[in-house]
Amino acid sequence: MQLEALYRPSPVKEFTPLPRALLGPGTHELVGPEARRLGFHRTLVVTSGLRGTDIVQRIVDQGKFHGVDFVVYDKVESNPKDYNCMDAAEAFRENKCDSFVSIGGGSSHDACKGARISLAHDGRSINEFEGYHKTENPDNPPHIAVNTTAGTGSETTSLFVITDTTTDPDNPHKYAAFDRSARVTLAIDDPVLFYECPIDFTAQCGIDVLTHASEAYVSRLDFTPALGQALQAVEIAAQYLRTATWDGRNLAAREAMMYGEYMAAQAFNSGGLGLAHSISHAFSAFYDLHHGLNNAVLLPRVWAFNLPVAYRRFADIARAMGVDTVGMSTVHAADAAVEELIRLVRDLGMPEKLTDVKQDTYSKNRLGQGPTEFYQRSREIVGDDADVDRITRHTLGDSCVPTNPKEPTYDTVRPLVEHCMNGDLDDLLT
């Protein structure tokens, strides 16, 4: 009821401010000078480690050259867990740090946001801050976020997404929290760092961009200032994601996707998200799968689910994706958006249903891996009634549900979840 009240139609809309940002090739070389300018002395680097690359070491070395002492915490997992936040906060205290630099994608940035909020509240569990604007102390350590993927846009939003593994260890819960105090001090987006992304990971992150943009564009919040950014981000993803995926050192494509992810995140920061995110959070909670991989499975089906209440908006999306809609009715143009999305998913070689996903078949796939005991014993996505039921229940409690354009209920969402797990995408084309 609290979430429903928050998003009840209102003439008052809120624009959420954005952090300062430096964007473009070579900007990662400014981390040291910017940290020094901001008064950083001893800084905790929060990262997944980005193993197989020298990105973290390069940034640490140039930071030290500029007189900033860096300590590295490199144990952040995909779908960052509550204990990642708390361990990072403890490392910050133990090493007497005064600032943060996160290096990576949304997982590193979100874990760092969580650590900062915990530190500002005397070490309280990050899970106490699930929801909207739950912090009581807005003052927390300064934070530079260095992005290495074109995906979540966490470096520019007030959102952070954490998996609660402790409240009910047999039922992990992934939640999206939104708080003004989570905003970073400075965002740095350098498309040169994206060169290191594996092919399938690039595709997964890019589908996340398209998900952010399209959900903000059809959100029931209908936030006018977000619509232009959202639609342009759709256009960018449709035009450049294939090239960025299959020609990963194409700077024009990488830079375009950088701007696409940045704009899509700004759009949803004030414009809201929807059901694709809610179901994806459930998939990640129970299977520890990458958010963008989930979205590739989900988005065509969620678009089809939402079509009846947003035909005109989806017709706009079709045109932004390059579909020639001349001579089409609004309804047919909206249908064409779904068809074009399916073509994109297939061109990128993405999975078409959740039960296609097996352990170690996709980059950043942690299915069946630890250290949390739940994930060690949950190795297979079965897609049976029990699977569908637990995903549906988790979905309906998610904070992104209220802004979905079509009202979700258990009876309407359960068949959608079942189709995401076991259905054929061609069903959407008939």
Unreliable stretches covering 5 or more consecutive residues: 1-7
Distance between the termini: 37 Å
Name the average pLDDT: 93
What is the percent of helical residues? Answer: 40-55%
Q: In sequence order, what are the helices and strands, one letter per element? A: HEHEHEHEHEEEEHHHHHHHHHH
Q: Which structural category do the helix and sheet elements fall into?
A: alpha/beta
Largest sheet: 6 strands, parallel
How many distinct beta strands? 8
The backbone outline, from C-alpha atoms, is: globular
What's the alpha carbon Rg, rounded to whole Å? 20 Å
Could you walk me through the main structural features you see in this protein, from its secondary elements to its overall organization?
With 430 residues, the chain is α/β, with parallel strands linked by helices. The protein has helices at residues 2-6, 31-37, 55-65, 82-94, 106-119, 199-218, 224-246, 251-271, 275-287, 291-306, 311-320, 330-347, 373-377, 385-396, 410-422; strands spanning 20-23, 42-47, 69-73, 99-104, 143-147, 159-164, 173-178, 186-189. It contains 15 helices and eight strands. A six-stranded parallel β-sheet has the order 1-8-5-4-2-3, sandwiched between helices. Helix 10 runs antiparallel to helix 12 (330-347). The radius of gyration is 20 Å and the shape is globular. The model is unreliable at 1-7 (pLDDT under 50).
